[in-house]
Predict the structure of Cyanate hydratase.
Amino acid sequence: MITSREEVTKMIVATKITQGFTWKQIAEVIGHSKEWSTAACLGQMAMTKSQAEAVGELLSLSDEAVAWLQIAPYKGSLPTEVPTDPLIYRWYELVNVYGTTLKELIHEEFGDGIMSAIDFSMDLQREENDKGDRVSVVMSGKFLPYKTY
Amino acid sequence: MITSREEVTKMIVATKITQGFTWKQIAEVIGHSKEWSTAACLGQMAMTKSQAEAVGELLSLSDEAVAWLQIAPYKGSLPTEVPTDPLIYRWYELVNVYGTTLKELIHEEFGDGIMSAIDFSMDLQREENDKGDRVSVVMSGKFLPYKTY
Amino acid sequence: MITSREEVTKMIVATKITQGFTWKQIAEVIGHSKEWSTAACLGQMAMTKSQAEAVGELLSLSDEAVAWLQIAPYKGSLPTEVPTDPLIYRWYELVNVYGTTLKELIHEEFGDGIMSAIDFSMDLQREENDKGDRVSVVMSGKFLPYKTY
Amino acid sequence: MITSREEVTKMIVATKITQGFTWKQIAEVIGHSKEWSTAACLGQMAMTKSQAEAVGELLSLSDEAVAWLQIAPYKGSLPTEVPTDPLIYRWYELVNVYGTTLKELIHEEFGDGIMSAIDFSMDLQREENDKGDRVSVVMSGKFLPYKTY
Amino acid sequence: MITSREEVTKMIVATKITQGFTWKQIAEVIGHSKEWSTAACLGQMAMTKSQAEAVGELLSLSDEAVAWLQIAPYKGSLPTEVPTDPLIYRWYELVNVYGTTLKELIHEEFGDGIMSAIDFSMDLQREENDKGDRVSVVMSGKFLPYKTY
Amino acid sequence: MITSREEVTKMIVATKITQGFTWKQIAEVIGHSKEWSTAACLGQMAMTKSQAEAVGELLSLSDEAVAWLQIAPYKGSLPTEVPTDPLIYRWYELVNVYGTTLKELIHEEFGDGIMSAIDFSMDLQREENDKGDRVSVVMSGKFLPYKTY
Amino acid sequence: MITSREEVTKMIVATKITQGFTWKQIAEVIGHSKEWSTAACLGQMAMTKSQAEAVGELLSLSDEAVAWLQIAPYKGSLPTEVPTDPLIYRWYELVNVYGTTLKELIHEEFGDGIMSAIDFSMDLQREENDKGDRVSVVMSGKFLPYKTY
Amino acid sequence: MITSREEVTKMIVATKITQGFTWKQIAEVIGHSKEWSTAACLGQMAMTKSQAEAVGELLSLSDEAVAWLQIAPYKGSLPTEVPTDPLIYRWYELVNVYGTTLKELIHEEFGDGIMSAIDFSMDLQREENDKGDRVSVVMSGKFLPYKTY
Amino acid sequence: MITSREEVTKMIVATKITQGFTWKQIAEVIGHSKEWSTAACLGQMAMTKSQAEAVGELLSLSDEAVAWLQIAPYKGSLPTEVPTDPLIYRWYELVNVYGTTLKELIHEEFGDGIMSAIDFSMDLQREENDKGDRVSVVMSGKFLPYKTY
Amino acid sequence: MITSREEVTKMIVATKITQGFTWKQIAEVIGHSKEWSTAACLGQMAMTKSQAEAVGELLSLSDEAVAWLQIAPYKGSLPTEVPTDPLIYRWYELVNVYGTTLKELIHEEFGDGIMSAIDFSMDLQREENDKGDRVSVVMSGKFLPYKTY
């Protein structure tokens, strides 16, 4: 019996590695962006029935695993408050160094409120560059003003 | 005697609030983007002599404060490991939820390595939208492959 | 020179105590609910110019303090991750004990997403009861579904 | 041999997912609100013998599991001090942002004391709204004044 | 201007030390047990007007300080999660070593619920003993059963 | 092979639950108070050979388990520094709120030193009361003065 | 007004440094070992009236400071859970590396119980040695067996 | 396959308990002090081939386990930063209370530097005493002065 | 099924210990420095297909394990924020004691920026010395200046 | 009155910034390497009388400050366990990523023991390189074998 969503994540990752799939291939089967699809496979998003079945078929998952993919998972993909992996840490560092800057500029432009992390999308692309290619990430989130009542 | 960079940051913020400057105005005086300039004023970047003097003149800072602006500061702008401010927390949440996704997709595209948080730029814009305007942030960082030796 | 919003909060609280105002009186001057007004005075919400001036007049605050009240503050009102005050701890305990219950029931009713803490209102009332009066709190937040992209 | 209540929680959740039950259906069998019943199934409340047997029958649990359901469990349903799941975090954020507000207003109305988290009930409903449906949660707890002795 | 209850606590403690009062003498003036009175002076309980004035007179506190004594304070008297002071640590150790024992025995006697820390009293006495005197502490708290709804 | 005392604790608890023993019955077999006996079964005290054999016989434990019961265990029965269980948390709260009070009053009565948590006993009783029964706990620990050398 | 024992500790240390006293000289005036006397000056032990006056005279402390020296202080002399100072860290490392060894050997020799840190003395000496002098520390604490009741 | 040193430690401890060996007996077979030998068995020191084989023979360990005993292990024998076990905590308390005293006295005698925890030995003895036997521990570590370069 | 890179690390370490390989031998098979090769085997670097196959052949790893070796792993090799192992702790201590020194000197020489930990190499050698051999480590990392934009 | 070494560090840093000294100039006055001298000025090493006087003269420090420079300071130069400054973090990252590698290779070469952080020196140089200059740091520490006793 599968008793946690993490077990399904591990199955997906292990199958992907040993059978040589890419996240882009998996995303095509799901029918959404590679960003959303990867997050969904890694246990951060809930899939619809047809999305889950498509992944299940591609990666030969059991019916039970397919059922788990449709559940809104307990989110949070990192093992520690401060990530130890250098790639992920750089993003945490950006929050740490630029956090107050983002706050000041969003408030200057929009007033008090937040940028949604739910009504949100992300697009990651390679940006060719003579001095070394760059990672370009566009993040777009709805501005939500604080409600006064 | 000013004995820490934080004191200068507090002076800049207090003067900006009571005299009604915007970060865009300050950035124009500095001559760089509003993103970099705000980060620099908030103690996350070192200014050149002329940048520091321009800020000093606009905000009536002492020579001592202007000297401190040219020092590479001890960076990190948040008071706690997990930020409590809702706007900044949303960014931490993005790292927490999408951290492993970013890792997987960058490795799929570029191999092992990181996206630099140093050779990095950021551009924040309002994106008009009928369902509510959006915050759009473009982040661009050089990909740095792990060196084999 | 006032160099942080916390200083203004302390002034408001000290004046309220020594001059005997209630939060309801302060809320009437601000023109909003006692819940929102108290949060705003305690440094968790930004006021408009006229709201800030009204509070400033009632509590004899300086112009500088009134300017600070209009700034979107760095939010988070508790000194530790786990609150030590017994009244506030009981709310943390509710999150700890009922957190997964809230998650399950909201997902069952609405699907994957969150209840907004920004587009949010709260109403606290005394509920008379023979076995001892009760505190009744109604919380209302917009449901925000996760966006698929 | 089952050696912890967590194992029973995992069995209940896994069975619910793979057999497609809802918490409302489980609550009907238990004979209490969906809020209390879900918390009880997730290991936060002790059931009576008949409640436990009803759940056991519905979900085909062993006698041993049914015995565990009647034990007052070690409560606390979250894996970290600060929850990482965005839905649950929003509740923690409310405590963090509004904690001192709740404290001030309850003291203003009732004097020194707390709102009980034990003699407590909760009701979660969908509130239809043209701008997007809202989650409405009513929390009611007995006020307990500090005893002077 | 006094801007926190901690300042009043420090004044009380400093005056008590330099003028040589005992907690028993202060408790007599307040008119309650030495346990409750000491906790109130140390910022853990709110005093009534007459209690605060009595303490104020005895220790020559200002009117402002007397006003602060009547406010429900932000409770929690220890600087760290795990106390470093050996006397106080022994009490933390008792919770750590006997915590699950207290839980088991209270549940065995009363069912699911808690012992109140609010409707609570404490009495500390010297217990003479040939092998060395003992500290005897009687703690009495109302049992509060979990409400089913 | 049993490789930790925790395994034996889990066996004892599971057997007690499924076979319906009470801690009082187990304490009678051990021949000591219910407080000490429960703590010993929960891995906080070492038993003598005859005590361990009596428990082993009552609960059908293996010889190996009985051997482990006679070992001085690594003590500490809680999974986190701040306990999440509401019943146990109330005791931690008492230490947090009354810790400095206990320190002041013990020092006022006895001078510098501590109340032992080793030469210590505890007695928990139901105290009948018209307004709701109370939990009464008497704690007695030897006072140990700091040695001057 | 002196409002904490830490202020007195800082005065003692500063006076000692600028006037060139040694801890041995201070201990002679106090009339106890250099180990106990240093701990007392650093805010870890309470002095008698005559000890405090002797220190006060030697270091020209005010009467108020002398009064504070006679109070049982809130003990714990380190700023972090894991000490950062290399000399003090080595002692923490010894507890970390040899902690379970000390536990095993004391239990093997004495049975269940602890070595007292209250009825305790310490003697630190230079041990001359051709390969480099050694620090020799003798620690002696009363064994306290767990009481069975 | 044994994949960690901790597994070997658990085997040694379990065998010692069920077969009734003492650490002194094991130390005799190893040919070193009981202090060093216990630490080595508990995974804090590396053994030579002959030491490991002697322990392996006495406790019937596999060849694989004997190979692991010869590896320099990842040291640190405690599960938490602040130990919860009362016996081990007392040693942490000594570091906390006397840490700055040890620092002051070692610097007064030797200048800047540390007492080595590597070139270190420890001897634990029972000290008979009419008022209750004492644990006497002699610790000896080489003084290492900071190198100036 | 292998479901994590840690499992492969454990296999490599266990095989190395029981079959008596050295890291130098493994590095020769991989064809890179012993520093990079050890880090790669310990799960901190991704191998190429041929490197992974060479290690797999030497240590008789399964195809699945060889596939895992080619994945960019979640890096970070220590179980706690502050390492408990004395050898590794000394490096953490160097960062703690010399961290601000490194920062000052690198900024003095290069201006604001960092030393890369990605475009980085390390060489560890024995340095013979009459007073005791020394460990000599040369670290070389590209300087990356902060980009102004 | 100066009551902590940190105050002297702040004075030195502030004077250096406003008067435009470099660490190399300060090191020349001290007569040691720039690495040791900077660490000493930043409160990590104790100076001799003549070194302290030389620094005091150059930076116009008071006699009191010069006395503090000769005291072995409480070491540790970072405000948090995990450093937030990107330059210093990279060094922490190296310990995190390469920590187990350093451990393995030092043990392979030297056996069980540590590399001293006390009998230690460091040399930081610019390494010119066409692809961008590099920071080269040579660290040399005496190997200290664990003593068997």
